[in-house]
Amino acid sequence: MQSHSCVAFVGAGGKSTAMFKLAQELSSPVIVTATTHLGAWQTKHAGKHISSGSASLSDAELNFQGILLITGTTEGERTKPISESLLTRIHQYCKSHSIPLLIEADGSREKPLKAWADHEPPIPNFVDLIVQVAGLSGLGKALTEEYIHRAEIFSRLSGLEIGETVTINALAQVLSHPNGGLKNIPKNARRVVLLNQADTAETQSMARAMTAPLLPNYQSVLIASLANDQIHAVHEPIAGIILAAGEATRFGEPKQLLDWKGQPFVRVVAKTALEAGLSPVVVVTGANAEKVEAIIKDLDVVIVRNEEWQSGQGSSIKAGVFSLLPPPVLPQIRIEQNAVEHQDLRFGFGGGAVFLLADQPQVGTSIIHALKEKHASGLYPIVAPMVMDRRANPVLFDRVTFADLMNIEGDTGGRAIFHKHKVEYLPWHDESLLLDVDTPEQYQRLISNEDL
Known about the structure:
The protein is of the alpha/beta class. It is 25% helix and 24% strand. The protein is elongated.
């Protein structure tokens, strides 16, 4: 995260734990506060605790190396929320001094799951990142107040009756509901859901099953066991970029249009990318653009025409990556003399992109799924298949590599940046990944193998 980010934690099942663990991971100083009640026992996680009922804190009081916790006054076993005026003062101080500000902005009465009343959650509109926490120990339990804070509201959002068993589908529906997990989130805030209490193989499997329905509404889905200091996986949207701009001079005709089991190469590759859950799927065209685009125009793909295709594959890679960067990120990028500088592309598009070649229609969904799973397990900068001690395609590039990919020149492709980033190789036993089509002889070899 950026040093000046403001992060709010909402939901149930480990908000405070997640907040203080993040505070410990960040470079000092860090300021932590709450717009809701905190348990008085939680103040021990901070190096210093200020209990204040006003906004009159001085810069000297806020100047602390370590974790500084600021709450309202303590009454019994709970601290009161800070006032809006004090929160504004703290935010201004953090912003001017580039200090991370972490805010607990929800209450759950220590239940693993919750729903939200009309006044909840109290998220400040200046928050950059929302971490929506859900405790997986609530799955398989009865939908009652024993396990679910505001069970009646949870029932309405999920469609379950009171007393019914809480399922992964019901929880995913609540977390994705505009009046549920998406409620009161500032428009431009990045959204992360943290599925906590994945303490067993069974709960990890249940969490994995929730990632697909959650990702359309969240930029990241974290599966973790905070009690055991483990993050099992980080699932993020992965795009597909199909490189289909080449002229195929060696082959003698457009390879993108060659037949593969009754369909053109490029259409088969695009459909495979869509079936594998890559989103968005970008097809970069160039030579023979009109013909290539005509056979994929009915598919749910983004077509990007590379007018500089003759300069080599590097220009197509740059065109594909650039198409993924949304408007809020583009101002962070400066292109000057073919060089790209960036601040933090992890606040831009999802998790990364799988690059696919238009002359490899034999590549199936299984390798794409495997690349995504490997990336989720470690957020590796580059994940590439390894077949018989040879690197194969397709290759997944995490978004941390995007700036370097946009500096590639000529026809070297993504391998030009392998020396700059950690490459995680995925052992794969399908030799067909090593096949591509550069000559008519190779095409005959490809189509003659009926098992592909």
